[in-house]
Amino acid sequence: MTDDTTYETTRDSAGPAVPAGAAGVFGERLPLAIRYVEFLGTAGLERGLMGPRERPRLWDRHVLNSAAAASALGVGEAIVDIGSGAGLPGIPLALARPDLRLTLVEPLLRRVTFLEEIIDELGIEVRVVRGRAEEKGIIATAGDADVVTSRAVAPLAKLAGWSAPLLRVGGRMVALKGESAADEVERDRAALAKLDFDGLRVETVAAPDAEPTRLVIGTLATRMGHRGSRSRGGGRRGR
Ligand SMILES: C[S@@+](CC[C@H](N)C(=O)[O-])C[C@H]1O[C@@H](n2cnc3c(N)ncnc32)[C@H](O)[C@@H]1O
Question: Which residues are involved in binding S-adenosyl-L-methionine (predicted)?
Answer without folding.
Answer: 83, 88, 133-134, 151
